[in-house]
Amino acid sequence: MLLICILAALGISAGFHGNRQLSTDLTGSVLFLDSRMLSSSPGSGRTVLSTGEDLFWKECPAEAPQRIMSMEQGEIFFCEYFSGPFSNGTGLMVSVPGEILLLDLSGTVLSSLSTGEFPGSLCSDGENIWFISSRDGLMKRLAMPTGRIDVVDLPFTPVTVEYRNGLLLIGKAEGGYSISGEDGNHVFDIQDAFFGHFSRNNTIAFTRSSESYGCETISWETVSFDITTAEETVIPFQQESSDAQVAYQSDYDDPVTHFDVPYMHQKWDTPDWFNGSWSCGPTSCLMAVQYYNRLTPDSIWCSYPSGHWSQWGNYIPAEYTFLGHTYDIQGESPGGTWVPGAHGFICRSYQGAGWNEMIWWTSQHGLDSNWLGTTWSACTSELDSAWPVTASTTSPFTGGHILLFNGYYDNHSVVCNDSYGNQNLPGWGTLPNGKDVVYDWPGYNNGNTQLGISQLFSARSEPLAAPGTLIDDRNLGYRKLGPCEYWHEQETGYAGYSWWTYSTGAQPDTCSVEWLPELPSQAWYLVETYVPSSHATATGIYHVNTSSGWTTATVDQGNYSNQWAIVGSFSLSPSSAMVRMGDYTGTQGQYLSFDAVRFTEQTSIEDQNSASGSEDFSIMQNPVQTGSAIAFNLPEGFSGTLEIYDLTGRRTACTETWTIPGVLPAGVYHAVISFKNTDICQSIRFTVTD
């Protein structure tokens, strides 16, 4: 999908072509030569090269290969994606996966040099090529005559590099630049800068923020830095109007990986009374936690930008308790308002997020969280495992902003949940449009907002499986409801985890769980629940939404330990099937477990009021008189076990024959046969009368 917007701000220096000024906007997606617009294609203002005689720039048109444009010749080179153009002294060079291509000034490929990776930024003095390895977080030097590659030691993670007159201008992952010699020996630093490049007359031009509000930069200034005298000349950022139309591609096909993470906007999905402008860190961490369905919904009505419900926004500024931790520490929000909750815990020391506090909060919610560094490989290895990554970032729009990554592309663009909106479009912070936006990794130009990476943080747990015929607490079909302070997690049960709470003696339910399966067809299903070995003593009341309406069954969990217990056999429809259990049992203070529920389609079900036989599995007589032996027709060649369960789920008989003595008291029962060495089972519901 394409979005067209009108360019409203120019003024960032993109260099010079002869004596004429090159400029772009904050997105780097427009290029002007003095007042003449050369391009409004995404990325056109970010990678610009003047050779004196000609001017070259990169364009990233939507739904077309990336290309190099020449002011004199038009399009001279195209490729699905690449980095460049850069100068190699006499011609051009670009990087593609695995190699650096050397081109003449007409775009013809003359030769190639192997790198074994895909660097985003490179430069040359004619004999050596310096390039940035995003994979390793290193700067490397390639000797052009021999192809030998050496690492240039640096005390920081580099993201861009540019060469002039024996000096390297090296962009840092955390923001700003270092000026170094050819061997990486440090000369001096430039702090809090972006769009840095060697200008003319021995100067460096860059842009920096001059005023911020929360995570958002609201004014900028351009700076000319004299390398010889170390003096700065500040030029106010030029706010000029333009009728230039810039196209932004808001989504892409074929990411390497992408998974859905629930989205929250830090301003518009938090309570109306709370200003969430400083809450990017808490909101991003909360999105990571809710990807794993940890906290129960605490829905609030939010009025802006239009009325809507927010399931988890109240956790940001309000006190709550979860897994034994009470989040009552106060943190400052705009206007001098101090609040508890996730914001208070994470933003206790600053007007923004503390990195250690982000890790502590995420870990206390049951995730494995730690520092990951700043490299592309560290990020993508997490995403390949379907683990989201929270990231402390910078960009032309912010000096510090926390994002959540949930996908990436081969071209080094990342998919993000940006809790403040979409930085690619005007109005960042005013619209709830930050779900699954695409930004560029530091040093890469694919036509999107280019990030700086200050630090990455893990948020690991077991990703939720898609719903099926078995719904566990690590499935998307498992929905936990009620105040999160009453829920307790234990490392026992199906697949090693389960939730429990205390039973209540009075209605209505305070806490409950809904199991929502994905069933293949309308049929009869044997419904079973897994009972863990601890915190399971109450008799649970299971409500089942059958094809003909709701019905109820009970299971005495005290009779089981790490076992499946039968809830019953029911006719279920794929469109409405649900099992629900609440904490009301009629008896207060017992342990009640909420673990897995599975639904097994029955190959043959005998109607409970019919005495007719079935060639698979049937009962000889139904109902059965108390004291009478109960006989069954078993499938031909049957080898397995016949079990009888009452309506509480208690097993009352177990045999490998087709008949049982008349010892069952009056009541309703389930007969279940399980075939040896298979997962196949069949069941019948029958009645014993007085």
Keywords:
690 residues; Methylamine Dehydrogenase, Chain H; Jelly Rolls; Cathepsin B, Chain A; 59 strands; mainly beta
Write a structural description.
There is one protein chain. By secondary structure, this protein is mostly beta strands. The protein folds into four domains: about 1-250, 7 Propeller (Methylamine Dehydrogenase, Chain H), CATH 2.130.10.10; about 255-460, Cathepsin B, Chain A, CATH 3.90.70; about 470-600, Galactose-binding domain-like (Jelly Rolls), CATH 2.60.120.260; about 620-690, Macroglobulin (MG2) domain (Immunoglobulin-like). It is built from four helices and 59 strands. Strands 27, 34, 35, 36, 37, 38 and 39 form a seven-stranded antiparallel beta sheet that branches. A hairpin with a 7-residue loop joins β42 (about 490) and β43 (about 500).
